[in-house]
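Internal tracking record. Fields below are filled automatically when a chain is submitted to the structure queue. Please do not edit lines marked as system-generated. If the sequence contains nonstandard residues, flag them in the REMARKS field before resubmitting.
Queue: standard
Priority: normal
Entity type: single polypeptide chain
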Amino acid sequence: MENNTIELIRQKPDRKITYSEYINSLLYTADTGYYMNNKEKIGKQGDFYTTSNLSDAFGCTLARWLLHVIHEYSIPPVLCEIGGGTGRLAQSILTYIKNNDPAIYNILQYSIVDISPFQRQKQIAALSGFDNVLFIETLASLPVMRGIIFSNELFDALPVHVIEEKQGMLFEVMITEKEGKLAEVFEPLENLEILRFLQQQNISLNEGQRFEVPLEMVSYLESIAGHLQEGFLVTIDYGYTNNQWMEAAHKKGSLRGYFNHQMIENVLLYPAQMDITSHIHFDALTHYGAEFGLKSEELLGQQEFLLQAGILEELRDHSGADPFSETAKRNRAIRDLVVPGGISSYFRVLLQSRGISEIDSLFPKK
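SYSTEM-GENERATED OUTPUT FOLLOWS
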């Protein structure tokens, strides 16, 4: 795939491509892109885990919340998951709703939008026992809907531009070829969309600071908003607010690769063989969401969301001595999802609404 990237570079008049072009090529090129090929990506045999794959308790708790808002705000039981992964999250949600609210389950419509043929086949296999699931390749094929659209670790996988401040000037970090290898090169920042994003978000970089600009995220959010006539948009992901982006710890940006469960700082390595990801911009999601007709309701840590949504109700009695029993492992997974410093510490949940006039309670009363 490195040769394909070099060929892409050679096709450019100036022999340079943006990081956004590079990431898009490596992740989403048909057949050969990381998300488009037949390589295992999620789980022990892949390159990374997602929180929804650690335990079905994550999906069950999300299903609890979904049922709450469906009943509380008379939202049609129409659910759309964008980026379905292995299908395990959908499996947990559908199983919970089927077992706990059969009346809703009988009229439920569940769609999964996923561009990856490999992942869609996994989802179809995982959800073969459910007859109310629609598998969709692109968001453009999703009808305008009243209901709930949600994603878990979606926006972090979208391409980003990379900029850096050097000697008081802003540069876009580009990728070129040097002696047959990929290398970075700096060009004065001229992209008006990037400059507009920085202005609208009131972003001012410090000397030597590197920063990812998520133009694709903004564009995709606009598309999602255009498909939600009324209901909720739920975004679960890892990321920062604008103030956090300015902290010294994030001076080098957040663009990373994951290969065989190892974090790779140099994303020019292992072309198309590893995941490439960056932390998302939550303030930008709320700002542009408002422009696209979405009202920001809450931005919560994932731990807080899970606790308020009732994850502790998923704990099961375990009186046996076997620490490797399914019940014991499930209870440990729940603990890991809610303890301070655990995996949820890196994630946030953004709740946005459209067309719902009064919101009194986003969570079930205790």
